[in-house]
Write a structure and sequence with these properties.
4 helices, single chain, mainly alpha, two-stranded antiparallel sheet
């Protein structure tokens, strides 16, 4: 397997993992009533922070930008001292919906690394 093929496989694995992490964030941010426990927002924020980093490292700028915005929204929410009202959660849920849509439309070939010129490394 060439270096380019290895890099492409790595990009694909990270994109697949990222999509799986988004499913977990979605579960965490799905309220069961009129509020969401702060602990769930904190867990979702930690995962979103990882998504932001992975997206940036793997060359998925658009996913990284939306994940960064969601990360900031969740940081604010996790600092609440009481359960988060559904109305306060709506902006984060809208960002999550955008992030999921973009990630579902993204292919590994859209990564800036996917077609990187590795000839200089040989």
């Amino acid at each position: 397997m060439t270096m380019q093929e290895q890099l492409r496989a790595l990009v694909k694995r990270h994109l697949d993992h990222l999509v799986g992490q988004l499913a977990t964030v979605t579960e965490l941010l799905t309220p069961t009533g009129d509020t969401l426990p702060v602990t769930k927002a904190a867990e979702a924020q930690a995962i979103t922070h990882q998504i932001k980093g992975t997206a940036g490292s793997m060359g998925f700028a658009e996913i990284g930008a939306i994940a960064s915005a969601l990360d900031e929204s969740l940081k604010t929410l996790k600092n609440a001292s009481a359960p988060i009202p559904l109305a306060d959660l709506q902006p984060a849920l809208a960002q999550l919906a955008s992030l999921r849509r973009i990630s579902e439309e993204t292919t590994p070939a859209m990564s800036k690394l996917y077609n990187a010129d590795l000839s200089q490394l040989a």
